[in-house]
Design goal:
Layout lengths: L6 H14 L4 H15 L28 H7 L2 H7 L8 H5 L6 H25 L6 E8 L4 E6 L5 E5 L3 E5 L11 E4 L4 E8 L2 E6 L4 E5 L9 E3 L6 E6 L4 E6 L3 E6 L4 E7 L5 E6 L5 E5 L4 E5 L4 E6 L6 E6 L4 E6 L2 E6 L2 E6 L6 E6 L4 E6 L4 E5 L5 E5 L6 E6 L6 E5 L3 E7 L2
Antiparallel strand pairs: 1-28, 2-3, 3-4, 4-5, 6-7, 7-8, 8-9, 10-11, 11-12, 12-13, 14-15, 15-16, 16-17, 18-19, 19-20, 20-21, 22-23, 23-24, 24-25, 26-27, 27-28
């Protein structure tokens, strides 16, 4: 039992809190007591142990006495309620019985906390018992780091890479086959968009957007747009005539695809605009290195809403439904519902680079920790971690005609994932 009386248990509770965003009063109360016990006698500030802080080793504090304020309030349930207003009557009794907090009493309390959390997690795992895991079905090798990935209307895949090439892949080919076609760019292909069948747009680190016709035998881009001042991070189709781009130059630009000209340019963030998506209601949503997510009317350039509270760059955005938005910042997926944060998902060990919806029940995330994680939408539990990549996973996408996933990485590979039979 002594092993449970470590900072690890506090981290478990705090992790449960972030998953439910402190909406569970019982968790809040357990956390308050456990945190007070643990942090007493510690030289480090308790915030050192908040989720997301890398802890090299667990620290036992069995010899530390609880703070005087807690020692006093333990003897009086009214005082407990005053000091910890989230307490419920159902958990006051075991606390009241601790007249003289010592190691043994502490172990009993911690054991109860641990067992309850473990029981809750076991119940959640039972709910996911019907989940069928993904397995790596195929691996295609590229001789350079892959920076972007999309699915084409034809069912083929297109990648952009650090060797300044666009490659077209047939996912039906056997594992290890080479790409069907290569197109030589001038810069690194950071992002891709198929505006209409077999017509690609490519955004590069050389600040331009190029037009490619895959029906043509030409090995050169048809046209380039040069209005951005720094590299282009995302491309999004707004409607059948217009697309938008975002850039490290802090701007979002809307473009007339057929007339190949800029319509409107506006400064969207105070730093690099790293990601851009179209929402189901037609508006655009952007994330930036200024630690903000913003929603835009792309026709006027008006900012309709902004989301704050991040501690790192927003690298990716994904919309689950009309009310729910996911954003990736640092190692955490932030879950927004009706413009309020309802959960933080911090299972990844490094930056979350991409998020995609699989179906009405699951979504996937790709990270610089070399993994892809599958999440259940209802419970927000991680149900599987895919570890076959050996370097940063840049993109993960769900193919339109099946439940197959595709991912690309700086380990120079494109991988296809299928449900296990």
């Amino acid at each position: 039992m002594v092993g449970r009386c470590t900072i690890d248990l506090l981290r478990i509770i705090e992790k449960e809190q972030t998953r439910h965003f402190q909406q569970n009063d019982r968790l809040n109360a357990l956390h308050s007591v456990c945190r007070a016990f643990f942090c007493s006698g510690q030289k480090e500030h308790p915030d050192r142990y908040l989720p997301g802080y890398s802890l090299e080793k667990s620290i036992t504090v069995n010899g530390a006495a609880p703070p005087a304020s807690l020692n006093k309030s333990i003897k009086d349930s009214v005082a407990i309620k005053k000091e910890f207003p989230n307490f419920k009557a159902s958990i006051l009794q075991p606390i009241k019985e601790v007249k003289e907090p010592n190691n043994k009493n502490r172990e009993i309390i911690f054991s109860e906390i641990y067992d309850e959390i473990q029981q809750n997690r076991n119940e959640e795992e039972e709910d996911n018992s019907n989940y069928v895991e993904y397995v790596c079905d195929k691996t295609f090798n590229k001789n350079a780091r892959i920076a972007s990935l999309i699915e084409l209307e034809s069912g083929k895949l297109a990648t952009g890479s650090y060797d300044c090439k666009i490659c077209i892949w047939n996912p039906e080919m056997p594992s290890g086959e080479l790409c069907d076609r290569e197109l030589q760019e001038i810069g690194i292909v950071i992002c891709l968009l198929e505006f209409e069948p077999n017509h690609l747009l490519a955004g590069t680190n050389y600040n331009y957007i190029s037009f490619w016709n895959l029906d043509s035998d030409s090995e050169e881009a048809e046209y380039t747009l040069l209005e951005h001042e720094k590299w282009v991070n995302s491309l999004v189709k707004c409607n059948d005539q217009i697309f938008a781009s975002c850039s490290n130059d802090k701007s979002i630009i809307t473009w007339d695809y057929y007339n190949k000209k800029m319509i409107h340019k506006f400064i969207a963030h105070n730093d690099c605009v790293l990601c851009l998506i179209k929402l189901k209601n037609g508006n655009l949503c952007s994330g930036g290195a200024d630690l903000l997510t913003k929603i835009w009317n792309w026709k006027t350039g008006e900012c309709l809403m902004k989301f704050e509270g991040y501690i790192d760059w927003i690298r990716c955005i994904c919309q689950i439904d009309d009310d729910t938005l996911l954003t990736g910042s640092e190692n955490t997926i932030t879950v927004w519902k009706k413009n309020q944060i309802i959960a933080y998902l911090s299972e990844h060990d490094h930056d979350v680079r991409d998020i995609t919806v699989i179906d009405s029940n699951y979504f996937a995330s790709a990270s610089f920790d070399n993994t892809i994680k599958i999440w259940e939408i209802k419970s927000l539990n991680c149900v599987q971690t895919l570890k076959e990549h050996t370097s940063n996973v840049i993109n993960v996408i769900k193919l339109k005609r099946s439940n197959i996933l595709a991912s690309c990485s700086t380990d120079n590979t494109l991988k296809i994932w299928k449900k296990a039979e």
